[in-house]
Amino acid sequence: MIRFENVQKQFGRAKVLQGVTFAVKAGEFLVILGPSGAGKSTLLRCANGLVPPSDGTVYVNGMQVTRHNLHTLRKDIGFIFQHYNIVGNLNVMNNVLIGTLGRKSYWNFSFRREDRQAAEQAIAQVGLADKAFVRADKLSGGQKQRVGIARALVQEPKVILADEPVSNLDPVIGLEILSLLQTINETMGTTIICNLHHVEYARRFGHRIIGISGGRTVFDGKPAELDEKQLAAIYAAPKPCGEAEGSSNTAANG
User: Fold this and answer.
1) Which residue(s) pair with 192 in the sheet?
2) Which of 21, 69, 202, 208 minimizes the number of CB atoms within 10 Å of its CB?
3) Which candidate, 201, 188, 203, 234, places its Cα nearest to that of 35?
4) What is the pTM of this model?
């Protein structure tokens, strides 16, 4: 499904990713665990071409990301952002319809009846049927993230990349969002790659956990294998100099 081979990324003097290598199987719920600034966000952005690696290779469905048309590549990849990235003055329906543009040609910006039906279905799937025509800036944080998930679902993706999807939410709402992603994974077979820094969330939802620290992979195993020694390795190393994780508007976020 997705394969990282010796992926490295440097922004100026900051070495954000340093030789990351692992593969993700189709249908997996993979959690990338690590502290703020570890390189998690940059890694996901390398997977869908938002950030090209400085060295190494990323493959998605056998296609090398840097050598293929990104519009074509991204048709099968949904992305969920930490800060939602939805348009506040548009209603929920129109925000979700934006997700259908990824499967259209560059010059086709019209929405068909089938697009609206798919958007309605995605909105209902995330539990927002009664909010379909409410402006997005009137929603709570958890509801906004549900809009982001619906926007990804309407693409009919084979994989969803979720970048710290619950870091701005309270624990109860965060669990609801992760449970929703888990349901999507189990019922639709969608591969989920989810960045988290909350250890218990990682243990509860991940089929497998990749531990990232200082831009390097320091753990790759099942949740039951994640012990105190492994956690110390993940959280002990200093983050790369100059990196700021979590900002969706910063190229060098981790």
Assistant:
1) 29, 160
2) 69
3) 234
4) 0.89
Q: Is the pLDDT of residue 252 over 50?
A: no
SS (H, E, C) 209-225: EEEEECCEEEEEECHHH
Cα 152 to its chain centre, rounded Å, is 10
pLDDT (tens digit, 9 = 90+) per residue, 156-210?
Answer: 999 999 999 999 999 999 999 999 999 999 999 999 999 999 999 999 999 999 9
Q: Delineate the domains of the chain, giving CATH numbers in brackets.
A: 2-85+141-236 (3.40.50.300)
**66: three-class secondary structure by DSSP:** helix
The region, left, alpha or beta by phi > 0 then psi within -120 to 50, assigned to residue 193 is beta
Query: Among 199, 188, 144, 172, which residue's Cα sits nearest to residue 31?
Result: 199
Burial class (CB in 10 A: 0-12, 13-18, 19+), 189: exposed
Please tell me the least confidently modeled range out of 29-33, 164-168, 227-231, 249-253: 249-253
In angstroms, the CA 47 to CA 4 distance is: 8
Any bridge partners for residue 213, and if so which? 216
Q: What is the pLDDT of residue 248?
A: 41
* Residues 40-76 as b or e (16 or more Cβ within 10 Å = b): bbbbbbbbbbbbebeebbbbbeeeebeeeeeeebbbb
Residue 251 and residue 234: Cα distance in Å, rounded?
23
